[in-house]
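Q: Here's a chain of 477 amino acids. Please give me its 3D structure as tokens.
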Amino acid sequence: MRRPLLLLLLFVAVASFAQTDPVVMTVNGVAVPRSEFEYSYNKNNGEGVIDKKTVKEYAELYANYKLKVAAALAERLDTLSSFKEEFAMYRDQQVLPTLVTDDDVLAEARQIYERSKEVIGPNGLVLPAHIFLALSSQATDSEQARVRQRMDSVYQALRAGADFAELAGKVSEDPATASKGGLFPVWIGPNQVFKEFEDVAYSLQPGEMSRPFLTPAGYHIVLVKDRKPLEPFDSLKTTIVRNLEQRGIRNQIIEERLGQAVAASEGRLTREQVVDKRADSLAVIDAESKYLIQEYHDGLLLYEISNRTIWEKAANDEAGLRAWFETHKKDYAWSDPHYKGIAYHVKDKADVKAVKKALKGVPFDQWADVLRTTFNSDSIIRIRVEKGLFKIGDNGTIDRMVFNVLNPKVQTGYADYPIDAVYGKKLKKLPEDYTDVRGKVVEDYQGHLEGEWIASLRRQYPVQINEEVLKTVNNHQ
């Protein structure tokens, strides 16, 4: 009797969810719930968005977006290894951090503290200062005697009242502490310094000074500045957590947990499948994360299919671009005249005519190569050139010699090339060729192809928009 009851409860739960999150639209049989639509609409129509859309306007755009994704899925672009790798990388960036919490990091900090507390024990921490004279482990007996005798002299001076910090600055051979009066930069605990040094330091009370003693590094005289017990965890918590974060503790915990999950599955799950399951679980409890991940998934597909169908196709379709330009030529008319050509500067007056002769009959896009090979083919530069499509204010030489501007705002020319000249064609209103306005032509042609594509997708895939549910977007309890 329990199974029918569970099925009934499941049905009631699904029905209840359907009522609270009704379907806004269906595209190619795939339902789009109101929560998903609201997430996208609100994200793309928030503060700072200039071209805000009404809900109804955005619904049409969103349907087109979903149509393109449906087309990408139909072409199995989601099976491309490049898509899988990029999507997995982004999804992991969103999902993996949810495997670790601040409490997990705090627990790691607590463990480190407890281990440190156990190691430090009841003797606590010591803040030493020292005077150090280095001694090589390969030193001869005479060298050892000389260093020992020098350290004894330092010790006798200290006993006679010499200032420890001043003497450390003068004679200590530890560059890390000598300039600070021999003071260590940190408190020391067990197992952090040479055993010989540790034993002496812990045998002293604050203000007490040791006799000279030897470690594997050389001779020391230690002055204990202070001693203290290890502070309570709450006092050190922030510092420990910060150090753990800097060492990437979160990534370490994540990898440990993934490894544990894979091991617990006894070979049934791979690391990737564990992350998949985590993403699925996250989608159930966090709608924003779910839609963010889905947005990236669909966005990658949209980019790939748009590039193949529209952007790359339009950019490389020279015949199509030319035909589009010829058909819509008046759309690219200018309000001001332009000059298509070059401003050039030479030293020899004969080169003015030589340039014009070299370029006569040569296509505009080949001028640069001709000028380079004809005039600047070796180490001697005969001409300086500015080539392009210019309007008033773009080039001082053209302003002066073509547009008759008496005092151009833009100054061009070269002191070493005193003779200025121009060569080209003045275009009063219209571009001469689509390449003159190629960027705009490509953009318009892409828009045309996209319109045709969407119309084709609308015929191919059914779209149903629930107008009544659409009215409740951002307006429901």
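Q: Can you summarize the key feature?
A: The chain has a mean pLDDT of 93.
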